[in-house]
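Reopening this ticket.

The earlier resolution said the output was attached, but the attachment link was broken on my side. Pasting everything inline this time so it's all in one place.
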Amino acid sequence: MNEFLTVLTAVLPVFGIMGIGLLLRRRGWLSADADASLMRVTINLLLPALIFDSVLGNAALRRPENLLLPPLVGFGMVTAGIAISRLFARAAGLKTKPEQRTFAFLTGLQNYAYLVIPLCVSLFDSGTTGVLFVHNVGSEMAMWTLGLTVLTGSGLGGGWKKILNAPLAALLLALALNFLGTVVTPPASVAFAGKTVLTVIHWFGQSAIPLALLLIGAIVADHLAEARGGKAVRVVAVAALVRLGLMPVLFLLLAKYLPCSLELKRVLVLQGAMPSAVLPIVLAQHYGGDARTALQVALGTSVLGLATIPLWIHFGGHFAGIW
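Inline output:
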């Protein structure tokens, strides 16, 4: 019971900040005109700072098993999620190809970053958070390659180039510096300046998740009305069955039986509990998917996830032996 309350205490603030973002948008305090610039600041400055803060000095990321296996698992589980979701698209009552492709893309892609990162920070140590970022490289690759191919029904269309972004560059640089920190002792003057820089990085990193969650809440507020209509109940029900029912089981089986580090097992338990990602709603709109289906899947599983996330993490933690 103590673990469940700990998980619930970590989950509620995440959804609470998203709710505040929704209210700020409704009151006009967070305008849509600010979204693009705030998102650029988050992705290009704050999230890289959080990565540096989590990776530098991280002993868990000096072990090869935490550098090689997590990205492969991240790519493989997104691939499995999209493939399984594709099989259930017709059961959701979706007739057209854009609707079915959008359902597979949104349902198959868990919220691998902006929702899971604050939970990881709250529940586990920095070693696990660092492994989470390495794992997410594989998830990101799967989204921009296989995911985009499924969504568009064609080739990659340059989507692979999106993988080469500021967070990935920050992760690679931080991993290199983390390794060098074990073999190089800097002069005292450099060490003193480095502490100042690390303090600035830490402050920026602490801002990344709250701002991202506010923006997600604002995006949800913009599209709530559009999610109505069609076969909304059926779409949400089938998406929830796959994303919040079948996929957690697969993640937990992998966490229990895959010969891997404790940090990766924790990451798998968290990832398995996640609802569909919210930000890919924008991708669905941009790349010719069905906007209403994307909204129904993302918003529906996120709302239901408020109830299921604590349960899956609590149960999964005991099942996989991570508590």
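Reporter confirms the inline version is readable. The radius of gyration is 19 Å. The mean pLDDT is 87.
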